[in-house]
Amino acid sequence: MAVCETCGNDYDMAFEVHAQGSVHTFDSFQCAIQAMAPICEHCGTKVIGHGVQSGEHWYCCAHCARQEGTRGIVDRIMAGASARG
Question: What superkingdom heads the lineage (predicted)?
């Protein structure tokens, strides 16, 4: 069995995540998200989807990036709407 690095649970179905040269052990996706997901620098939510990166800054969406002063990032729906007129 392996011990989850987030909650300490010793679990027979734990799994490893290999990222950026490190190996992490978790007992659930929830614990993996808690430990590894970046945090939106505007609203503070965990970024568990694609998110938006501007330089070294991470945001959960284009709206939050714009609120922090990032320009040129749009949501897909906005980009598609403007392309159609």
Answer: Bacteria
58 lies in the same domain as 23: no
Q: Tell me which amino acid residue 85 is.
A: G
Query: How confident is the model at residue 77, as a pLDDT?
Result: 65
CA-closest candidate to residue 50, choices 23, 18, 73, 71? 73
24-33 per-position pLDDT tens digit: 999 999 999 9
Supply the DSSP string of 24-54, one letter for each residue: EEESSHHHHHHHH--B-TTT--B--SS-EEE
* Structural domain total, the chain: 2
33: part of which helix (H) or strand (E)? helix 29-36
pTM: 0.74
Same domain, 42 and 80: yes
